[in-house]
Amino acid sequence: MNTQVTLQQTVDALVQKGKGILAADESNPTMAKRFQAIGVESTEEQRRSYRSLILATPGLGEFISGVILFEETLGQCADDGTPLPELARRQGMVPGVKVDRGKVPLANAPGDEITQGLDGLQQRLEEYKTRGARFAKWRDVYHISTSTPSRLAIEANAEVLARYAAICQHQGLAPIVEPEVLIDGDHGIERGAQVSEAVLHAVFHALHRHRVVLEHMLLKPSMVTPGKACTQQAAPEEVAAQTVAVLRRVVPAAVPGIVFLSGGQTPQEATANLDALNRLSPQPWELSFSYGRALQEPALQAWRGDPANAADTQTALYRRAKLNGAARAGQYRSSMETADA
Ligand code: 5MM
After folding, report:
1. Which is it for the CA torsion 36, 39, 42, 46, positive or negative?
2. Residue 137: φ, ψ to 5°
3. Atom 5, ligand 1: which residue's CA is nearest?
4. 260 in contact with ligand 1, CB cutoff 6 A
5. Residue 220: closest CA among 124, 292, 150
6. What CATH number was assigned to the domain covering residues 3-339?
7. What is the pLDDT, as a whole number, of residue 339?
8. Could you say which of 220, 286, 297, 322 is catalytic?
9. Is 71 among the catalytic positions?
10. Probe ligand 1: pick from 21, 28, 30, 223, max atoms within 8 Å of CB?
11. Exposed (0-12), middle (13-18) or buried (19+): which is 222, by Cβ within 10 Å?
């Protein structure tokens, strides 16, 4: 099939109304942290067990349009031998893959980092496609402090994100472009907005330079919030207003969807904030989710590595997905948190 048609179909499937993306692409060190918190050793077999369990959640495809997998998961199978990307596909979820190779300190920019993984990317994408991946994801990270992110970090990371996106489209995989402005710090929401605007401005400038087709990509940004340690936290309405104001300045209307990361918000906060964002509709883009922790935390707590907890694990994930499905339409109410339990 023509590459442009393939990319369009993938993007259309991912931004379906009432649905969002499950980020299950934690690298092994991150998964080790998540498992340590519930007293489980992070072996390849335990990661396979957990991920097969959550992907098999009955009805998950009602609210999840796509799932981002880690490279290791692409090659793993469920107990009955079904490859995990195929299991996702049978559930109605488009399988994707995280393709960056993590971050390292950026030379000559103290406190800043840069994401690596461009070398050999084209060949890796060929391989991921044969294993079922239809879209890709790459994450850049920006720290907010009095001296970061530097102009150098903003420009260098934007360049790398744009090169990644161009290579993906060339290979027929829809790129999710994820510039994460971290929530850590004690800065106020205005500083968060200022950094997000500068970062996104540079990212879209670089995407334009690299001739990335905006219609065939998704943006995965942080919401604009105060730092986690800021004494003045923001209500969902304020987060939504600040976030939309920044996005309207810098994200072209040609981008079909903005799929937020949760970035350390609690599951309830992430759902309430997404709901408030969708109450500000109509906007030029679909406003959706691509949550990792905000979808999986309750499921991990229910699982704790015990196969006897399988049904509770799936119920916890399904419930969070459903609540975020409601937030996609601005129809979430906090009372649903207890009503549905
Ligand atoms: C920011 O992290 C992404 C979204 O997850 P949250 O909703 O929990 O913030 C997530 O997709 C992330 O990129 C992956 O978990 C991979 O992270 P690491 O650090 O393991 O590469």
Report:
1. negative
2. -140, 140
3. 292
4. no
5. 292
6. 3.20.20.70
7. 77
8. 220
9. no
10. 30
11. buried
Answer whether 261 contacts ligand 1 (Cβ < 6 A).
yes
Report residue 221 CA to chain centroid gap. 8
H/E stretch holding 122 reads: helix 121-130
pLDDT tens, the chain, 341 aa long: 799 999 999 999 999 999 999 999 999 999 999 999 999 999 999 999 999 999 999 999 999 999 999 999 999 999 999 999 999 999 999 999 999 999 999 999 999 999 999 999 999 999 999 999 999 999 999 999 999 999 999 999 999 999 999 999 999 999 999 999 999 999 999 999 999 999 999 999 999 999 999 999 999 999 999 999 999 999 999 999 999 999 999 999 999 999 999 999 999 999 999 999 999 999 999 999 999 999 999 999 999 999 999 999 999 999 999 999 999 999 999 999 997 55
19 lines ligand 1 (CB under 6 A): no
Residue position matching structure tokens 């406190």: 111
Q: Which of 33, 98, 184 to mutate to test the pocket of ligand 1 (most atoms within 8 A of CB)?
A: 98
CA angle centred on 102, ends 105 and 129, rounded to 5°: 150
> Residue written as tokens 């300190």?
105
Is the C-beta atom of 25 inside 6 A of ligand 1?
yes
- Interhelix angle 44-55/310-327, rounded to 10 degrees, is 60
Considering just the CA atoms, what is the radius of gyration of the chain in Å?
19
Q: Could you give the 3-state DSSP secondary structure of residue 63?
A: coil
Residue 292 Cβ inside 6 Å of ligand 1? The answer reads yes
Cis peptide before 282 (omega within 30 of 0): yes
For ligand 1, pick from 21, 22, 27 the residue to mutate: most ligand atoms within 8 Å of CB: 27
Give the pLDDT of residue 341. 57
294 lines ligand 1 (CB under 6 A): yes
For tokens 């990317």, name the residue: 121
Per the annotation, the verdict on 220 as an active-site residue is yes
Q: What is the pTM of this model?
A: 0.98
Find all residues with CB under 8 Å of 219, minimum gap 6, and list them.
Answer: 176, 177, 178, 200, 251, 255, 257, 258, 259, 285
